[in-house]
Amino acid sequence: MLVVISSFDLERYKKHRQEEGAKPGTINRELSAFSHLYTKAVEWNWIDHKPFAIKKFKEDRGRIVYLTQEQIERLLETAKQDQNEDVYPFIVIGLETSMRKMEILSIRLEHIDTDRRAIYIPQAKGGAREQPITKRLADFLAGYIESADPGQEWLFPSLSSRTGHTVLIEKPFRRVVKDAGLDEKEVVRHTLRHTAITHLVQAGVDLPTVQRISGHKSFDMVVRYSHQNGKHIDSAMDKLEERYQIAK
To answer: N or C: fewer beta carbons within 10 Å in the chain?
Structure first.
């Protein structure tokens, strides 16, 4: 089937997806999957080589939006007052770990190790991994584990969900963001992840360690945070200047 697909077919597909409203990044991920099929076909000797180059769209990476310390405090305080009991712990975990939405909502109690300060994530985006957590978060989660109902499986249980755990957090999250006086269009669920990673970088944590904490499969994605945080770069250059002054 692969051998009958031409570059024209692929360009027509790209145009069709654009007309459907798909973003360049989304289409590029689909093209990557298609390219991977060709790579495996060559590896399995189904074809001799890739018949043509797959051209991807140029993506606008934009700036990384993250919360300041003052904004974090406002968001957390507002979340504490919200009627939804899941939104506060969801935000706390996001800010303390940089975990993705579904990684947080699908936490099993048995996968939380407060002694080792880690959460096991069996279905992370980049594959199963252990998520390091702060002592403060370990203590926070210990309270939830102690108060859990007998036989409770999930940290965020939901009887109305077919999965057994909460899967929708968008509505209460948007409400908390708005009530905290933040921009609903800029501050989205993923902003929690951006915030945690950005503050790690600004604190001077080396990038390989940041990658280990964030679970990014690509190191280039972590480097992006460093490039967009001038204060962190300025601090590094100040340290270099101080070293030279001492040497004089």
So the answer is: C
